[in-house]
Structure formats: structure tokens, C-alpha cells
Amino acid sequence: MKTQGEIEAGICEGMSRFELEYMGRGPKDIHAHLIGDLLVIRLEGVLTAAEQHLVTTLAPENGRDLLKQVRSQLIEIARPALDALVQGITGIKPRSLHQDISTLTGEEVVIFTLAEVPAFREIKKN
Question: Sign of dihedral through CA atoms 82, 86, 91, 92?
Fold first, then answer.
């Protein structure tokens, strides 16, 4: 049985690989937090050069909305792979997925709600 830290580290590794393979760029920084039946993943520095250019050259609301729309669609298409990733690491089937990205900071947040709280091994504190 994994520790909470091992689960979070595995999620970070898998999500980094996903971002690189599916989106074309891995995050500069990533953190995962398992909070009960919520899995919160914060990725920083995920915008590609093309996405940054899109956001800065179009009218602010047009570039932002288009980028968010494309990212949401890509996440929905990749949902089965993301669900399998999370279930493979946590041992629990994801119930839902929520995602948003800031076009100003390049920070992305992905939240999974899980069907139940994953079991993990407690680390003994001395």
C-alpha cells in the first residue's frame, strides 16, 4: 500500500507526462494534493509558445476564451486516459473532473472527485 506522498508523487509524474505528450509541453512545476476524496493538481507554466502568442495577439477575451475552450476540449477527449491514470495510482475510480487555466499566469488546476477516499499507508512519526 502506498503512502499519501507516494500517491501524490505518482499523480505529479503521470500528469507531467500527460501534459508533455498530449499538450506539447510539460509543466515547470506541479503539485498534487489528496484531500479526502478530492485530488487537486496544480500545474504551473503549461502554456505553449503558440498558446501564449494566441492570448497576446487576439483581443483579450477572444484569446482567453478560445484557449480555455480548446484546453477543455482536449481534456475531455483525453478523459479516459486521465481517469485510468488516476485510478491506476489511487486504486479508486474518478467520479468527475474539473479543469481551468489562467491565461495570465499559465497556471492550470485539475480537480478529480473520487468515488471514495483512497486507502493509504500512514507514515509513522518518531
Answer: negative
